[in-house]
Amino acid sequence: MSEAVRVPSPATPLVVAAAAPEERKGKESEREKLPPIVSAGAGATAGLDRGAKGQISTFSSFISAVSPKKEAAENRSSPAHLVFPNIKNVRDQPPICLDVRQKQRTSMDASSSEMKAPVLPEPIHPIQPKTVKDFQEDVEKVKSSGDWKAVHDFYLTTFDSFPELNAAFKKDATASFNTIEDSGINAKFVNAVYDTLLNTPQDIQKTVLKGIINSLLREWKGPRTKDDLRAYFILLQNPQFNNTSTYVIYAHLLRQIATLVEADHHFLVHWFKKLSQKRFKQLVERLLQFISLRLFPAKPEEFPPVTKCSWWIPSAAKVLALLNTANNLVHPPLIPYTDFYNSTLDHIDLMEEYHTWQNFGNSHRFSFCQYPFVISVAAKKIIIQRDSEQQMINIARQSLVDKVSRRQRPDMNMLFLNMKVRRTHLVSDSLDELTRKRADLKKKLKVTFVGEAGLDMGGLTKEWFLLLIRQIFHPDYGMFTYHKDSHCHWFSSFKCDNYSEFRLVGIYAKLMGLAVYNSITLDIRFPPCCYKKLLSPPIIPSDQNIPVGICSVTVDDLCQIMPELAHGLSELLSHEGNVEEDFYSTFQVFQEEFGIIKSYNLKPGGDKISVTNQNRKEYVQLYTDFLLNKSIYKQFAAFYYGFHSVCASNALMLLRPEEVEILVCGSPDLDMHALQRSTQYDGYAKTDLTIKYFWDVVLGFPLDLQKKLLHFTTGSDRVPVGGMADLNFKISKNETSTNCLPVAHTCFNQLCLPPYKSKKDLKQKLIIGISNSEGFGLE
Description:
Layout: E1 15-16, H1 29-32, H2 46-49, H3 52-55, H4 58-61, H5 71-75, E2 82-83, H6 132-145, H7 149-158, H8 162-169, H9 187-197, H10 202-221, H11 228-235, H12 247-258, H13 262-272, H14 277-295, H15 312-329, H16 350-360, H17 377-405, E3 416-421, H18 426-436, E4 444-449, H19 459-472, E5 480-483, E6 488-491, H20 499-517, H21 528-534, H22 555-559, H23 563-574, H24 579-583, E7 588-593, E8 596-601, H25 616-628, H26 633-646, H27 657-665, H28 672-678, E9 680-682, H29 689-699, H30 703-714, E10 730-733, E11 743-745, E12 750-753, H31 759-771
Helix pairs in contact: 6-9, 7-10, 8-11, 10-12, 12-15, 13-15, 14-15, 20-26, 21-27, 30-31
């Protein structure tokens, strides 16, 4: 066996140093078969171990708030000393939290025996107290008798210990711990018990909390059993943890879950994905609220000082990472990825978080950038913009220093990326300027059209983007193909060795990068797969021999570009007859290039290998990979390097492919009421009759007409990351005849509206105007 590379993991467990050596030997057969989950560096748990010696005792001290009688006894027992062994990372699963700096990953199977999870003792199974039917009958009896004794006794027994929890909620109390896909928990029973709990008297709710405290104390000090994971899984769903008065208990529960060994996290991840959407979302929202209230407590006196509970937020972030991983394993996801955003983080010092992550990575200090899925795309945009601004300032400062050192007079134009282009030679001039000034690409962009007076206050820059993109996508250039079925562009697969054409693809990618840096929303339509490829990898590799823009693709990715072909391949996969006889295909594909049909083998000797029922999955995968990766590799590599030549920032590692698309193209979600609130007026007041007519009409438009209006006035039917307010939308009074149609200045997001006398007239003219204007659209 080759020497394994030791990579610390945020899933590194807390291990009692005094534990018997024999407990760390051996392995559980069921855990050897677990699919691995990739974790980030140990810094993700850095906040969990900070000050461990002085802080774990708070777990005993908080009991006094709920059970004063136990305080003295618990405080007499000092916490065990804790050590952190290295736990290896493993491959093939979505990461629990992304560690983009981590280059090498090893398998759990490659771990030495002392590194693997200890063999856990068999649990002792109490007798199952009640069935779900018995419990529901007891609850019904309360409604008539008012006697809560039977229900109280159930809660008292069930939450007193982990074995009791398992006895109450396991489908089979004696079932062995042998599956990763099924927790063995009666979810219906758990939901019924928790739904009832919040409606019980306070003494019952306190009983449950006392039982949880006792259970967690036993688990903290004693060896775990095989059923402990089920108990953690059950307790995490307790709705009582919505209340801030329970946060101290909740924090210790999260800490124990966060510091479980990595193999245990595998089980939890797969159990989480089996939860209903409602319950799953409740878990996520509860954790996000916990983080928000710890950062900005409404009543600071409710919580311990931050210095004594610095591990609260790292513990919650780790458990959120498990939920995020579970969500990514489900197709479609249980909840949208945006539901993991914590908008509270928009109000903290994001650049401090970013710099902490940059300076310490995932090894020493906690940073929210270790868990980018909780940072909203708006917050990530701020990080990217400020990072780019700092890069621009550094480059401009260096240019200034060079001028001064050569005793040359500084020119303010050196602080900008100045583009001088002719409208009649827009593409060629832009290509030459961007190539000649590639060292200035991170400076603030300013555009001048030769022979035209005027200063670029933002309008000329946007016009340059819109005009240039429109021309680059023209079919005459042959770099991109428009697919009408999917309404998107894709890279032409024509084999071409013309260097200038590859440069053109790279220049377009630079435009995308410049648009991100200069806060310009582009009206382009690439499929989501394109942005996934742009982040493969998110940082240009130092070794130029490493391929770029290659990512795992599926038929679903192909469907977003070529839906008819994807449908045909799906039918091939589901065909119940004899594939070889019915389809008569081989591992060879054909493409038309400039009127000539060319053939390509998907694998060596593919033209002689028939597609059969046994190998059709391989055929579909190779075909999809050929279309989306191999056949366009050179074109996309130029595109990749062009984009990253401008957007060379570690901040890109924080982004999902969907978020890159939103930064470049904007969001498709329209909120016309928000646009109404942020609109500025020139020559009109918002109380004028024409303006009232306008908004009555627009708010009543169907979505397609609202998109046409936005495209007519701004050049794009999408919304910037910051929302409608970032459009700076303006309605100006046009003193022309009311027989005229509205006019738009897309460079300034301005609509010139004549003072129409009636709502009917305004609606008619507006629909004609927005429906019959090509604008700067691509198709």
